[in-house]
């Protein structure tokens, strides 16, 4: 027991990250490998599940201590449509949660086939991202799966655990994003499966995060370098894992995740949450009596990535440039790929307003980060989340300037935990530690960043302009579509 280690693998939107934890929960080593996404102007967003497998193999190969791994657990992106053969290989690309090819008329047509009490069954009102819609239209989204037996799964992690063990399992957090799970019962809903035209036998079993899915098979061990026979824990979809990583798995605390995309969230008792709500409700991956209230937005760290590509300046240089800038005329709307919350609009697009001949890289970078911060605030307010110190995690808040600008634009204290970029892995660690024989040490206190009064006052005035500009952009987008 004293030498136990746990490898947590997070299959994110842009990278696979592997973190090896020791017997007391300390981080021993980590590795990361990029994951490519295929996108088109028509809203297609796909990844190759074989790339996830290759990234896992490469990440394990980077770890000098891979031979010492005692167990492995997973997190990853949710709300995907993935078709797998019996050996775990994909029949074709995975359609991502961010895919926006379904148009309003198609959503209405498919939605009309669903039971009238769909929202009560699933805990969420119908959303274009619900995987049931893509499953109902699978002749368009997964023609490669036709005329052969397939396993349908919905989390990137679940494709990997199936390939490692031969067993198909999913967590309740991921399952609750599909539109196929009865939220109260935490089981697949027979009526919804009938509408989608799938049998329950073709779906993974819904199990808690600390369930052992199976053990690494000799074939999988040979391909990945993982020790043969080690237990594979179910883990949780990324939002559930991040909630536990931010220690927001008990009611009364809000947090924000900033990665390629982002979200704000809190945890409520099921009776208080009373789903369905205007915001997303996710089942906690461990506790049947807890609900994660989450408001997801589509553009976070990807906004600064876009500016870096457009200007030809590295992100670190752009961040340094903001130290010499103050909030000016430039105002950024971060709707580069539409929006999910606090409003659903696949047509709206981003904008930079208030530009002049003197607008420089520093002012634009500051405007972009302010715009993302305003999206955070907009979601916090729309979801009615508690106005406490906001815990912020994720790689898009790694730089001191990003953190300070976020605090200024929000006008509130933010708390940055140590190793905030690995909080998703830390969340899975917290979920499975007891079952994996890991004894967790107390965590160091978070770093609290306070807003600068003068800057906060300036951002407060500009926030009203942001809301007005967002409303206008939504009206304009339909004319430009």
TrEMBL record:
Pfam family, any one: FGGY_C
GO molecular function: D-xylulokinase activity
Taxonomic path: Bacteria, Pseudomonadati, Pseudomonadota, Alphaproteobacteria, Hyphomicrobiales
Domain named Carbohydrate kinase FGGY N-terminal: residues: 6-243
EC code(s) of this entry: 2.7.1.17
Name of the protein in question: Xylulokinase
Species of the source: Aminobacter carboxidus
Family as reported in the entry's similarity comment: Belongs to the FGGY kinase family.
Ranges for domain Carbohydrate kinase FGGY C-terminal: 254-433
UniProtKB keywords: Kinase, Transferase
Xref: Gene3D superfamilies: 3.30.420.40
